[in-house]
From TrEMBL:
Residues 1-16 form the signal peptide. It comes from Neonectria punicea. Keywords: Signal. This is Carboxy-cis,cis-muconate cyclase. Belongs to the cycloisomerase 2 family.
Length: 369
């Protein structure tokens, strides 16, 4: 009795769990089932899952209930049910018109009726609002968020209440805001914000407190901060950017930034980090990954914690994917050298803790557990 009190059985620091990820690929007909063991610090390819397409899975996204995986492949947004043994069963697709067939990005709602927003990346293409059935399987397009002929939207994000859709317009160098009515399904344009020449917004993410939208500028190789009005959903550019390249680099056109996401906090907490990366355009020359600390109350950026070279260029990926189980871990994909890694953040530093070579170029990975 006394001994048990003196030597508690639970050691708080070790997680000692196996976590599951799915990774899509830019080509082929396989989606990878991957495990990360946080005690052994190992990544293992456990399943080559056959997809119902021979043209890759260039963007994948889980639904909020983790019952379905949505996949963008040329010409289609597809829906797969996640089975108990973490396999995927193809269920349905929404087919795209031939002029907007580049299914490139998917945002799944966190609230009922769990609408899925799919964006083909090509000039003038709309974001499709796609309905799902009770089990989350994709049904049909019921509305569009429209842009204009100069727009080419590469990424979207929803507000915490799922009542506004934010679109990063890479070709049109702008950010668009649309309102979305969950009851009526109606989508309306609310705001268009041109970005400074040479920015090219690629992806964006809305802080869970609703007060900020952080945008990754692909051409600018930077993170830009936009203040959000929680009532109107409108944004105000803060004229504040943080570079994703070391100071002194004059060759920013040799890089193209790609992703920005928050670390995933425990329920009810505020994210600690904003994590972002840029790719180098030359295999053999590293891209960069960076994290910023965020103020707990305001959600504003406090400081850039680190800016580190990635293992290789990132290829067309270097897509960061924050872990579900700890804010200090994230995955990153490299399609130039065909691998996935897990990194850990330690104060103002970060490092690779697990590496898995793959036979093909991974696009983005999502954590299932
Ligand atoms: C997955 O496919 C690759 C390439 O064919 C092969 O090397 C690997 O052993 C397979 N892994 C599993 C778990 O099936
Ligand atoms: C899309 O759905 C149609 C109709 O069910 C089916 O014939 C086609 O094979 C599917 N294609 C893909 C790539 O999912
Ligand atoms: C959405 O846009 C597509 C292509 O622009 C069009 O074919 C479709 O009719 C639109 N759907 C709705 C519900 O507005
Ligand atoms: C697209 O819309 C924005 C905002 O109204 C405008 O500034 C831009 O010139 C438009 N581009 C085209 C090609 O219409
Ligand atoms: C941002 O700041 C720069 C440098 O002070 C200034 O030249 C530019 O006009 C500002 N842009 C906006 C949109 O406020
Ligand atoms: C860009 O310039 C830096 C500094 O001169 C150099 O180290 C780096 O290799 C260059 N990057 C590419 C992708 O060429």
């Amino acid at each position: 009795m006394l001994l048990r009190n003196l030597f508690p059985l639970v050691i708080a620091s070790a997680l000692a769990e196996v976590h599951h990820l799915f990774s899509g690929f830019f080509s082929g007909s396989t989606i990878a089932g991957i495990e990360f063991d946080d005690a052994a610090l190992s990544l293992t390819l456990v399943k080559n899952i056959s997809s119902s397409s021979d043209d890759g899975s260039k963007w994948i996204s889980l639904d909020a209930r983790k019952a379905n995986l949505y996949v963008g492949t040329t010409g289609y947004f597809q829906s797969y049910e996640i089975t108990d043994d973490l396999d995927l069963t193809y269920e349905s697709n929404v087919s795209l018109s031939s002029d907007c067939s580049n299914a490139n990005f998917i945002t799944a709602s966190s609230k009922s009726p769990f609408t899925v927003f799919g964006t083909p990346y090509s000039g003038g293409c709309s974001t499709l609002a796609i309905s799902v059935d009770d089990s989350g399987t994709l049904q049909e397009t019921f509305a569009n968020a429209t842009y204009n002929s100069s727009a080419g939207v590469h990424g979207t994000a929803l507000s915490p209440g799922n009542d506004f859709l934010y679109s990063a317009d890479d070709m049109g160098n702008a950010v668009w805001v649309h309102s979305y009515d969950r009851q009526s399904g109606e989508i309306q344009e609310v705001q268009y914000l041109a970005a400074a020449t040479g920015s090219n917004p690629r992806h964006l993410t809305v802080h869970p407190n609703g007060k900020w939208v952080y945008v990754v500028y692909e051409e600018g190789n930077s993170i830009a901060t936009y203040k959000r009005d929680t009532g109107t959903g409108k944004l105000k550019f803060q004229n504040e950017t943080y570079s994703l390249l070391p100071s002194g680099f004059t060759n920013s056109s040799s890089y193209w930034a790609d992703e920005v996401l928050f670390s995933i906090p425990a329920e009810g907490s505020s994210p600690k980090y904003l994590i972002a990366a840029t790719r180098s355009r030359t295999t053999g020359i590293s891209g960069y990954v960076s994290a910023f600390s965020l103020a707990t109350e305001s959600g504003g950026i406090e400081e850039q914690l680190f800016l580190l070279p990635t293992t290789n260029s990132g290829g067309s990926a270097n897509a960061v994917s924050p872990a579900l189980f700890s804010e200090n871990y994230f995955a990153i994909t490299d399609s130039g050298s065909n691998f996935i890694e897990v990194w850990t953040i330690d104060g103002k530093d970060a490092s690779v803790i697990a590496h898995l070579n793959l036979e093909n170029g991974p696009a983005n990975a999502v954590w299932y557990s």
